[in-house]
Amino acid sequence: MAHIDYFFATISPYTYLAGTRLEEIAARHGASVTYKPFDIMQLFSRTGGLPPKDRHPSRQEYRLIDIERSAALLGEPITMKPAFWPANPAPSSYAIIAAQAAVARGDAGDLAALVASVTRACWLEDRDVADDDVIRACLTAAGFDPGLADSGLLAGAETYSANLEEAVARGVFGAPFYVTEDGERFWGVDRLSHLDAHLSGQI
Question: Which terminus of the chain has fewer CB atoms gathered within 10 Å of its CB, N or C?
Fold first, then answer.
């Protein structure tokens, strides 16, 4: 069975725009997915990038243009200036890590829906994804116990930190980022078609 490690940030607009497209591709190819949320601001500093606010004005301007165009092409509504951005991504990431552990134990719940719900809360619904009530609502909407927002925080913090180190070690420098079991890397929602083609054996 093919496998995809999915590196993403819960405050990334492109992670939001990716929606559940990865999971649709994975389902077509019988591939499994491991969710690896990480601190994208730390990743930028570790891999030669800059947080958006520190980029040259030309880059900041083009980033907004690209987000708006990408949203239009994908048919996804988006709030271009979210009320709570950049929020602290750690609490929502810990909840996703806890939810993934719950699924591994056999609990019900939809991880793809959870990631989509969290990123939609940030980039469409003007909600603070660092707020416990928002996180609990996202967990509930995805079929998880909302109490996961308050459980396994130490394990969540350790995994979150380990995900960043793994991302750096494996050549990840942005989000969303997809790494296959054979080491192929694909960066961005606009490269999901390349991932699909790779899993199909076309490239």
Answer: N
